[in-house]
Amino acid sequence: MKTISTTLVTVLLYSCAGNNNNEQPTVLKQDSISIPISRDSSRLVKASVNKCTIDNEVASLGIGLVIAPKTFTLYDDSLLAGKPLAVDMNEQNDSLANICTMVFDPEYGLMHFACTGETENAYRVLINRSETKYLPKKQIQFETWEQYLLHSFGVRRKTTATEEEDKPLTELHRSPSDTAAILPLPAGHEMFCAMQVQGDWLQVKYDCFYNDEDSKYEGQPCHNFIDKCDNAQTGWIRWRQDNKLLIDIFLMP
Q: Sorted alphabetically, which PROSITE patterns does this protein's record hold (predicted)?
């Protein structure tokens, strides 16, 4: 299902403030993909004509994400004085050929840039993992990582494959500490609703409806129904470590 609520997707306009990664701004269903898009496994696809996929690693997670509109311009300099690069998500064989963003699915109008800082008029963003560009503030929208997580349709722990099983990269703890007690989870495919953020830790509540074949809440953001899960397990997971995401973030149902 494709009810795009980008950023998720209820994108709101914010100023680029706050620092989740010790970086100072410069005066800036179970088989789904990672950050983007959907809990529907049909989105396991390549995203564009270049080698960019829907979910791409970046050198720094920065202070949040910039959400670009369908058409926008990129600059090489913070003063926005140089020749701009015009980008149009509808022209996937042209202006997008050499651009890869952290979240990249132009077919559905999704280009989310890791934002590493801001100037008075621009956000400093990353493309192609570590290349710095600038986006005029008047064109785009910004969300801190906290806002981005809390606006999601749901989150899930990433796993690493072993010979015996897929092991989660993070455990569900009673409190936001690696030494806190680990909480058990019900059998089946997991999905959580993000409740609050404390640094690298995310408080989550288990989505008790996710394994229902005919859930009456299908297609809704988790905050619309998560309070109906009265006895669901609630705890804390690490959502990042250094510049690595430890969770999948779902932008649509």
A: PROKAR_LIPOPROTEIN
